[in-house]
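user: can you give me the structure for this one chain? tokens are fine.
assistant: on it. calling the predictor now.
[tool input]
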Amino acid sequence: MIIWILILIGMLVFQHIALSFSFPMVYIYISTIGMLLSILGMAYQVYARQQAVLREEAERKRHRELLGQILTQSGFCSPKDILEGLNRQTNGDARLIGEILIEMKVIDRAQLETALEKQKEHRKLEMAAA
């Protein structure tokens, strides 16, 4: 980023000198094009950094272990039960998936707390790795 700013400053200084000493207009046009390209380079560099951050965040989310995955891996419920709970959420039930599964009598509160504790441990490990 600093290099682009230095190039831009250099172009501005050149334009000032060119105008002060009556250089041919072609030099001023060329330096104007150079300044525009420098601005474009800075904008692209900012865009590339933002994209890298978004990719990194998406990768981190991809590895995040969801409560439904933990419940099924622990044998507390089946994937079909999780889908039914998610379907209820989609149809307007504002409660968390764990509360829905308890109400469906698929899991009990102790199993939910165990799964939430595993999820919390997994997230702590993620944060430590990041």
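assistant: here you go. The helical segments are 2-20, 25-62, 67-73, 79-90, 97-103, 109-129. The two ends are 25 Å apart (CA to CA).
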